[in-house]
Design goal:
Length: 116
């Protein structure tokens, strides 16, 4: 079964990190990504640009409305994702717990809906 692992973190806190900490975090993510590629769990994944680059789209009464920025103000922002193959939810949760961002943010685990 496939699961989407959504990585949430506080952009303001990350912006305060020094170059060494950012480099270590990048290395940790690289090692994690290689491990799930080698195990066969990896399907896709990417980091996202900051929320300052986001545009939210809504359609109301046939009119398209756009707003700069994310839809909701939250303490943590969506920063990236992994799409993984896992035998069950417990396996997906175990993979999510190994994502470096879980130490400072949160990982939302969502099963992919399979249409019949």
């Amino acid at each position: 079964m496939q699961y989407l692992l959504l990585i949430y973190r506080n952009e303001a806190e990350q912006a305060k990190m020094d170059a060494a900490a950012l480099q270590k975090m990048g290395g940790d993510y690289g090692a994690f990504t290689q491990s799930i590629i080698q195990s066969g769990n990896f399907k896709a994944g990417d980091a996202l640009q900051p929320t300052s680059t986001a545009t939210t789209v809504r359609v109301r009464d046939g009119k398209t409305l756009t707003t700069d920025g994310p839809f909701a103000e939250t303490r943590e922002q969506l920063g990236g994702y992994y799409l993984v193959e896992a035998r069950d939810l417990d396996a997906a949760l175990a993979i999510a717990a190994r994502i470096p961002g879980a130490k400072v943010g949160s990982i939302e685990v969502r099963p992919i809906l399979v249409y019949s």
